[in-house]
Amino acid sequence: MNTRVYIDGYNFYYGCLKGTSYKWLDPVSLVETLLVRSGAPESTLDQLAVKFFTAEISERAASDSSSLNDQRAYHLALHNHRQGRLQTIKGNYSIDKTKFPKVERDERGKEKEPKFSERVKIWKMEEKQSDVNVALEAVYDAVTDLTLEHIVFVTNDTDIIPALQKIQSHNALKQRSPVKIGLIIPMRKGDSERQGNKSLKDFADWTIKYIHEEELQTSQLPCRVAGAKSAIKPVSWFKYPEKVQEVLNTLSQKGVEGSVPKAWKWLERPLHPADGLEYIEGIPAELMDDEIALEIIHQHAQAYADYKQRS
């Protein structure tokens, strides 16, 4: 079945990626893996495989000063790596002052109802339009694209239920085969703090209730994604960022490789066996989340730097 996938980026981030070292994710690769164990394993991704809905972080709200540049690097990596197979559709990030009731207790220690609580002024920060964009794009594609046989949503947001209902209503009126609906809940297996919304599952032909950690791990982008402008994985997104930074500092210093992009090019080449150093097979850039491999890579980087500086 000809298939297109609609990913709510923020819903996916908070459900699967926040606090992990898997943020440098290739959504197309992940979806290809998940469809194999879905309720429609005969699916074939459309030429435009994924529509990815997100919004640019506001510098005013970012808790980390590098967040905006890290996100831009990721979006550039997606563009360079997948080009026409992934379309990024951006909403916006709003910051407004408003008043909300605060949680208070009465003299008996019982929480007051909001209508009886004092209102306090707060900053309200929201990612806007993505859920609307997901709904509009999916319904429009289902109605107008006669080649589309299967739509898959990656979200846990019940705001898209009207869109699912509209697609089902359209299916009932069509003279051809209905568009099948799949649902992937963006939750990691074993995450007991989050639950999939049951009401969403009622409108899908099949549901994947969680994503395995190994599926995230094997669906990562290359650390450096070449293009007219190369995109490089942010150091803070690695499992061992301090050790990765040490390797990059060693390689990028003057007289060695001279810059971080050139350091990554060095890491994309296999290591050579050397006297007195342990050896690992594979491409160093693909092993940077392995603590033991990272230590060996650092030893080779230091030996290379010493050699370059001597010569």
Structural commentary:
The longest helix has 20 residues, at 291-310. A 6-stranded parallel β-sheet has the order 3-2-1-6-7-8, with helices on both faces. A two-stranded antiparallel ribbon has the order 4-5. Strands 9-10 form a two-stranded antiparallel sheet. The chain is of the alpha/beta class and 311 residues long. α3 (67-82) links the parallel β2 (44-54) and β3 (86-90). The chain has helices spanning 9-17, 27-36, 67-82, 130-144, 161-173, 198-201, 213-217, 241-252, 260-267, 291-310, and strands at residues 2-8, 44-54, 86-90, 92-101, 119-128, 150-154, 180-184, 206-208, 224-225, 231-232. α4 runs parallel beside α5, α8 crosses α9 and α8 runs parallel beside α10 (291-310).
Overall pLDDT metric = 91
Largest sheet: 6 strands, parallel
**What portion of residues is helical?**
25-40%
Work out the helix count: 10
Distance between the terminal alpha carbons, to the nearest Å? 60 Å
**SSE arrangement, N to C:** EHHEHEEEHEHEHEHEEHHH
Gyration radius, to the nearest Å? 23 Å
Uncertain spans: none
What's the count of strands? 10
Approximately how much beta-strand content do the residues carry?
Answer: 15-25%
What structural class do helix, strand and pairing data support?
alpha/beta
Strand order of the largest sheet: 3-2-1-6-7-8
The coarse overall form would be: globular
